[in-house]
User: Fold this.
Amino acid sequence: MVACTLFWIGFGWWAITTLVQWVSAALALRRRPAPPSRHQAADFSIVAPLAGVHDASEAYVGRLAELARAGAEVLICVASERDEAAERVRAQWPGAPLLFGNDSTFNPKLNNVRKGLEAASRPVVALCDAGIALAAGELVTAAAQLSDEVGLVLALKAGERPENFAAEMECAYLNGHQARFLLAADRLGMPVASGGVTILTRDVLERIGGHQGFLNYIADDYSVVRTVRDRVGQTTWLANVMPRLPLGRRRWSDVWRRQVRWGSTRLNLTTEVKALVLFEPAIGWLASGLAGSVALLAYGVGTGTLALALAAHTIAWFAAEAWFVVGYRLPFGPRAWAAALVREALAPVLAAQAWHGRHRIDWRGTNLAAGWRPGDGAAGKSV
Assistant:
């Protein structure tokens, strides 16, 4: 009786988690019907915050200059003229449109960004994460989805060109995991957000109170999504395009801290988001494989059969991820398989560290959690 119960519990959990893995990939691969483009490069104000010399890479500054030559209004935001990013930009792009100044909310990024949002003068505003190799065609394609019903479109960033295994791990987090689940949730109509390019009309930006609409939650991207939905009454979508983020070489400590910070930040959002963060390890490869192993052992299989079954489970599990990643024209070679496997094995550790660090969320030297308190509202809290 005990063996029978263990078999059905283990088999049921394995079946459900495997189904989630494949269904998430299938949903994420579904593109929404692409409406005809209604904008051109000259219709966009691109707000590009920089902080530190690393943000002002030659490739990124070159892309911003290309967008400006195509007719877009580019607004490069730097908190202080003493920031090395300013010197680097001027060296690469003489006459670059640099805006200086800093606000005093709990969010350093929005403190830097506010002046750019207020200076934006074109019909469509795009807030772009540093480093993204953004092209005018991608902007136009994504913005075509804006309408009377869709108030905001977010284009997720996809990591590419990793030069070491730590960078490959970042690809595994950005592409195969976060993008897949976010796109799947978006296709189901859920409010989701992550770093990339946030695109909305200047009218909607004004209706959410400008930069204030980014400060209702501790995560600015999630805040603007919820504000557009709750206050403006329009929906938000993830775009069909995923602009690329060239990664180059990464340090493992930086990659890991970034993932822990994102996890800790989500644990300071709504109850639903918090529950999903804590539940993630339970539906991952490791938990699914353990559940399947319990079922097989309860059934009485030998160690050889168990080993073959676990190998088949692993191949089938990551084949779903490979299907999604390749569907967005991203590579998924042997090193990507290995990185995905390591990511899944570390999922319980990541969740535990995110929970432990939820009261201290370090973003470039600032503890976001110290300044933010639920209910602070649009104004946030000064630091």
Remarks:
- Residues 2-28 form the longest helix (27 residues).
- The CA atoms of residues 91 and 288 lie 52 Å apart.
